[in-house]
Amino acid sequence: MINIQDIRDTARDMLAKGEVRAVIGYRRGSRGMLAEPAFITDPEQANELVWDPTCFHNLSLYLVHDRKFLAHIRKNPNAPVAIVAKGCDARSIVVLLQEHYFKREDVYIIGVSCEGTGVVDERKLAPHLNGFQASNAAFDGDDFVFTTAEGEKRLPAREVMADRCLECRIPFPKEHNAVFGEDKTGRQLEAPFAALTRFEAQEAGARWDFWSHHFDRCIRCFACRSVCPMCYCDECVVDSITFPVTHETTAEEKANRIRWIERSATRSENITYLMTRAMHLAGRCTDCSECERACPVNIPLRLLNNKMEREAREQFGFEPGASIGGQSLVASFLDKDPGDFIR
Amino acid sequence: MSEQQVYEPRIVAFLCKWCSSAGSDLAGVSRIQYPPNATPITVPCTGAISPMYIMSAFNKGADGVLVSGCHIGDCHYIEGNFLARRKMKLIMELIEFIGVEPNRFRMSWVSAAEGAKFAQVITDFVDDLKPLGPQDKLKKAELT
Amino acid sequence: MEKILDKKHLDGWIAALAEWDVLGPVLEDGIWSYQTASGAVRLDHPNTKQSPKELAFPQREIFFKFEQIKGEPPKLTQVVPDAQRHVAFGVRPCDGRGVPRMDLVFNDHVEDNYYQARRKNVAYVGLACNKPPSPNCFCLSVGGSPVSTEGLDVQMTDLGDRYFVKAITETGKGLMTAAGKLFAEPSAADQKQVKQVHADAVAYPQRAIRNPDGVPAKLKASFKSPLWEELAQSCIGCGICTFLCPTCHCFDINDEVQSKAPLKGQRVRTWDNCQFPDFTMHSSGHNPRENTGARLRQRVAHKFQYFPENFGMPQCTGCGRCVSECPVGIDIVTVVNKVVENAG
């Protein structure tokens, strides 16, 4: 059981001593029970920090934002940033370190173990609350406790937990500077890739029907890309913002710049976008599943990323975010990589 | 489609300039007959092929996409084809995963000396693509 | 025209609207959306995930097709929106109020032909909110009400086993007379019940923007407030808030080339989004709204300052979608309250 006061004390001390310039954590938001990202620079505010089953955000995204901001104003960090990280979040940080996005000393990882549970899936929770809105959520052993207008509602975490947490293999931030909570790696609530395995049991025709239906539904709000700490490219293939323009660039050249993907949210363009994103996340996605949670139209994006994760694991023995020194999946190879598909 | 009008698949072939591209030239100068269905795009190395190119080719209407490079150990840049092997395996798995026929994507190793093999690769690919019919899953919709 | 419709006659009414493409809220893939009614329509939805704005302003629409054979003049073919009439059932009052706001944007001093061609063929059958369908509803703070009829053609109120149905426009009357026999005259008791339901609905507590009348001036004074950056610190720059919004209307126009020789393609209008980093990007690379703070300010000020300055009413209709759906909890009610409070 994690005592939130321990996290607050750590944050307060470090800010007071000037060891970190900010603490990125979670605080209570203004809409219902949901936590929201908090950026704390004043030690007095450290008491705002919370830790509950709605802390789903992968905050390592904000390390990327911070790095981009510093690059923009051409400054080097004068002190590290502390960040509250779950197991999956900490693995994301490891991937970013692997890719030299920032340095290890630039970040102070306050790890929190998800222990026997994880974060809640609002979509699974809704039917349990009979239309009532919860104002608070809390961990209690293997249960979640929700406060609603009707009183307290206790639910076994397994019933309302996100799939990613049920299938999580390592609910503990191995890479950390400080850590709270027990390491319950191997708790195995559901088999890894369970949802993926169920999906893959279908015929190709059924798989296409499923995906074409979902590809049609994408509204291209790019929440999946925006919420992903791995999608840090300055220019994404879907937008052409850094197309080099000089005084000699003609209107025709501007009009004819390469557009891999049109703005239209049609099936073919959505496929190209979502498939490219899945490829770009191969070996980098740590299954924080924020893309799937953020998606306003519920496209099961996690399946795509899980597929890549499992292929990387089974074909190449690769585990994303395993160690900082390791190479990335597509920038490395082994002699024994499968090649029997090549003619 | 009428009986006279036989379906001819359109293949986009990404060929490494150091091997397969030269191999296709050899097939040509050796007067080897093979189907004219492939549009070659020469690339500096198969390792330089982004999966985006493959998705884009399908998006623009390719019925099949071929990636052809140097045999393992022969890469001009030492390890480009090793890297390509991984990436192409992944994109192949992904395409199959969403329910597209896996036969629409192919990878081969063809050296500059293997004109006959190049002709064979194209012939086989065309034969495999014909029964699949036009690719309309990933393709941009026609103007409506 | 005020009538009573037994709930079991709803499907009969819809069946009588043969000339119309009838859309109703459908729960599919875990979200509510308006879909062409096939079978029974049940109006027990909270609110749909996306607003019905796409009926008049679709996410993608083709203006014209172009074609050019080298050396010859280009050939343009206009694409005219089809004349099918659509009627959406179960439109919530906030989304109804979005309609006249979109009309102002597209039709105020110049008429947008494409918008108007669709708009004139859309009718909205509203459903009053007996209680707020979302915990983030705040329609009362933006001049609306859970029983508002603004923008609607018909208003329905749920009275348990029957609906109280009121025609608001001539189109609405037409919709009702199409199935005239199914409707009954309301009794005095029905009238009384509707009044009570409406009064209860308005009295139901909602989230609130404090002192809404003072907001435009306060926002104007807060243009340079450092608060914007602070409030937008967690913004990820996605398009959820604007794409789901019933009144966000910004668009982009692109030429989509299908083939280069012969040149063939189409000019397409798609939704655009002020929260995307490239929305205001100049071709030189300079971006006047270069951070999330400036972009958040733009969206909030557009709803609560610029639109009131131009048209005398807030553009926001208080549906709460952007609040509920923001992946990182940016809450427009809190944002407005904080900025206003800070302006003194």
List keywords for this structure.
heterotrimer, A: 343 residues, 2 domains, 3-stranded antiparallel beta sheet, 13 helices, 8 strands, 34% helix, C: 344 residues, 8-stranded mixed beta sheet, 4-stranded antiparallel beta sheet
Describe the structure.
Chain A is of the alpha/beta class and 343 residues long. Chain A is built from 13 helices and eight strands. In chain A, helix 8 packs across helix 11 and helix 11 packs across helix 13. Chain A is globular and about 60 Å long. Helices cover 36% and strands 16% of the residues of chain B. Chain B has a four-stranded parallel β-sheet with strand order 2-1-3-4, sandwiched between helices. The longest helix of chain B is centred in the middle third of the chain and has 18 residues. With 344 residues, chain C is of the alpha+beta class. Chain C is 31% helix and 22% strand. The longest helix of chain C is centred in the last third of the chain and has 20 residues. The model of chain C has no long low-confidence stretch (mean pLDDT 94). The chains are: A alpha/beta (343), B alpha/beta (144), C alpha+beta (344). The interface between A and C is large, with 43 and 42 residues.
Chain-averaged pLDDT of chain C: 94
The side-by-side strand order for the widest beta sheet of chain B comes to 2-1-3-4
CATH top level of chain B is Alpha Beta
Low-confidence stretches of chain C: none
Q: Round the Cα radius of gyration of chain B to an integer and report it.
A: 15 Å
Radius of gyration of chain C: 22 Å
Q: Quote the beta fraction of chain B.
A: 15-25%
Distance between the termini of chain B: 20 Å
Secondary-structure element order of chain B, as H and E? EHEHEHEH
Shape of chain B: globular
